Amino acid sequence: MKDASHLIANDAQSIVQTHLDRLGEVKDKHLDPELKQQKFKQIADALRLRNAVLVAHYYCDPDVQELAEATGGCVSDSLEMARFGRDHPATTLVVAGVKFMGETAKILSPEKTILMPTLEATCSLDLGCPVDEFSRFCDAHPDHTVVVYANTSAAVKARADWVVTSSCAVEIIEHLDSLGEKIIWAPDQHLGRYIQKQTQAEMLIWDGACIVHEEFRARGITNMKALYPNAAVLVHPESPESVVDVADAVGSTSQLIKAAQTLPHDTLIVATDRGIFFKMQQAVPHKTLIEAPTAGEGATCRSCAHCPWMAMNELDGILHVLQHADQVIEVDPQLAQRAKLPLDRMLQFSAALKA
Ligand code: SF4
User: Fold this and answer.
1) Is the beta carbon of 210 within 6 A of some atom in ligand 1?
2) What are the tens digits of pLDDT across the range 38-93?
3) pLDDT digits (tens, 9 = 90+) for 10-49
4) In which pathway does it act (predicted)?
5) Would you identify the CATH topology of the domain 213-291?
6) 249 lines ligand 1 (CB under 6 A)
7) How far is the CA of 153 from the centre of ligand 1 (A)?
8) May I ask the CATH class of domain 125-210?
9) Protein residue whose Cα sits closest to atom 2 of ligand 1
10) Nearest of 92, 30, 73, 121 to residue 317 by alpha carbon
11) C-beta 151 within 6 A of ligand 1
């Protein structure tokens, strides 16, 4: 594995920081139950009026996930969100997640209107992989197959041969490696390293990172394990290698929920965005879930196990966009056509895998 750190755009970190500075602190929102039900009803009516369905990611706030389920939408990982949105008969999709998820929905369903509660919700991985820099990197290695994580812009996807999510990345890289292909991987360095270790594939790895998963530390988790010696540790592979090394189960959000069900442990220490607790606790109501500690402590940390951009998806924003349709995802049709190829490849591959 070669280190591609010198190839990342020099200003990627400052772009991420600028975005974070604009957001302010992430606050927990506890709604009065009566008010919440009122908002749910208003939004359900607005969804019906617009022939729309709500597609939410596991990392959204529990209220948003509950609303998606209550209104016949879906709560899932980005792969399943893409499939659900594409196959649902609604003419409008309201995507509660981050921008690349909205773009993916538009690419797969160009005939549908894609709304988001805010177009400001982005992702440090997407920001850390500007298309011009990335294209130059790819051009410098023309003999490599370009595989990008779903957490990228439509333009970066359009430059790729394959798109993958964390739930199918290992299998797809394994497949490409079996064909003797050399791989460019972007943008998450930790996931890239994890896949490389699993598959032994020849990979050039971009050095992007998720600001949430990067905060987990092996030492904090080991200390917590000492307090709960019978607990299992669940880790998302966007976390640093030392954190992955102390895990009992490593996987995508959906795979971690499955692991919570299949592992015999009654207590689980979970190293991923705490938004996942909503669905995970539903899946294992009798088990105790504990948030893995992060490096940042107390109020100074804006990414303490909750993505600040996912937190921008609020009930008020969902209602507003349904009433005003003013946060619309658009992707240039030509770019979308090109970006659809690697996305379709992933969807076909993962469907075959499932079958
Ligand atoms: S949790 Fe990390 S990978 Fe997911 S959207 Fe937020 S910054 Fe991106």
Assistant:
1) yes
2) 999 999 999 999 999 999 999 999 999 999 999 999 999 988 998 999 999 999 99
3) 456 666 666 666 665 555 567 889 999 999 999 999 999 9
4) Cofactor biosynthesis; NAD(+) biosynthesis; quinolinate from iminoaspartate: step 1/1
5) Rossmann fold (3.40.50)
6) no
7) 13
8) alpha beta
9) 210
10) 121
11) yes
Kindly state if the Cβ of 98 falls inside 6 Å of ligand 1. yes
pLDDT digits (tens, 9 = 90+) for 246-288: 999 999 999 999 999 999 999 999 999 999 999 999 999 999 9
Q: Which atom of ligand 1 is nearest to the CA of 98?
A: 5
Residue 131 phi/psi, 5° resolution? Answer: -65, -35
Smallest CA separation from ligand 1 atom 8, residue: 123
**Angstrom distance (rounded) from CA 144 to CA 252:** 25
Q: Ligand 1 mean position to 201 CA, how many Å?
A: 25
Count of positions (residues) in the chain = 355
Nearest CA to ligand 1 atom 6: 307
For the beta sheet containing 52-57, the strands, ordered from the edge strand earlier in sequence to the opposite edge, are 74-76, 52-57, 92-96, 113-115
Element (DSSP H or E) covering residue 316: helix 315-324
CB 186, CB 134: distance < 8 Å: yes
pTM assigned to the model: 0.91
